[in-house]
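Request: Give me one sample?
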Amino acid sequence: MKDRALGTKFLLALVTLGVLAYFGIQAFRYFTDPLATTAAYAYSVDRSVSLSGYVVRQELVLEDSGGLLRLQRTEGERVSAGGTVALVYSDQASLDRQTELASLEARLEQLQFAQQAAQGAEVSLKLDTQILQGILDLRGALAADRLDKAETYGQDLRSLVLKRDYTYSETEDLSGQITELSGQISALRAQAASSTRRITAPEAGLYSAVVDGYERVLTPDMLESLTPSSLTALQADESVRSEVGKLILGDAWYYAAVVSEADAQTLSEGKSLHLRFSKSVEQDLPVSVYHVSAAESGRVVIVLRGTSYLPELTLLRQQSAEVILGSVSGIRVPREALRAEKTTLDENGQAVTTEQAGVYCLVGMEARFKPVEVVYSGDGFALVRSAYDTAAGDLTGSQEVARLRAGDQVIIAGRDLYDGKVLG
């Protein structure tokens, strides 16, 4: 009797240990389950070729002139034929006289405005709006490091503030001040006429203050004769200099770069593409393939031609860029989520694998296998489309369930996954 009681206790202890071991294993599996998911989403990737080349334009260097120079045009500003590009002063006194003249003319304009503004209060409100916009423009130019624009915005803002200040002043004596200032301005103009000379544009074009020495060694006329070796060895002509600047003629610009012969296979002449500069220009620029040179040691020169956004390109010369060949769209999933086989359970509960590309997705509390086709493989991710991407009316119920969509929860990692496995 004593032995039977001992055996019963030993059996109960074994059962208890078995139950504890079972729940311990289940708890361990639960807390160490590698199941991880992420959302799939629509994504596009540009197919591009990286380039390093030169921006080419038809350019006319303006001749230097002795004396003190004051430029009258901003970068990228269009100048008509005969338009003033710069003023040249014979000596410092002439320059100081011109500075004083500009100050008096600005003050005269402010007084005339104040005299007119006295007729209506709505002018003050309009000035307040213009001052606020002027502050925003100045701040934007400083943030973009465009000091040339910031100087212009600063001058305009000072003028607006002074105009606003004059609207608070008494206007009875403005006529006398205006008459006095007009006399001073007339006298200064007469003195300045004999000591000031204008530099004008011989042709219409866009103004640029930067002369870099490539204006005469890299022209549109020579683009079709460029070879990879000649473009690589290109050097600026240091003798070409001008403090006045240059004019960019015409509306077309070109970008010449050396690429491998393999990359050039997709760049046939006349093909429309988009060019993306690495800096200075925020948007992709429409271009066409203007010329592809003969191959030289497995390399060719490609020349792209554009006719838009020329005022934004006046400061560009040697520049890195990407030519956009096209784009690929699909559903983005992590590469580790891709599976080469689909696993199911037969009627006996045995795992059956079928060779098929796809991903497992968490649908409700189940893992569901969704077949896909890989359309692009990137760094750590892949773009895929569902194997059942067709008109919804052509799909069966099971195919519709197995269709991958943007927003599905894709399983990145999981233990012993198969189609229909209950998770959680």
In short: The CA atoms of residues 25 and 399 lie 37 Å apart. The first strand starts at residue 36 and ends at 39. Residues 338-422 form one domain.
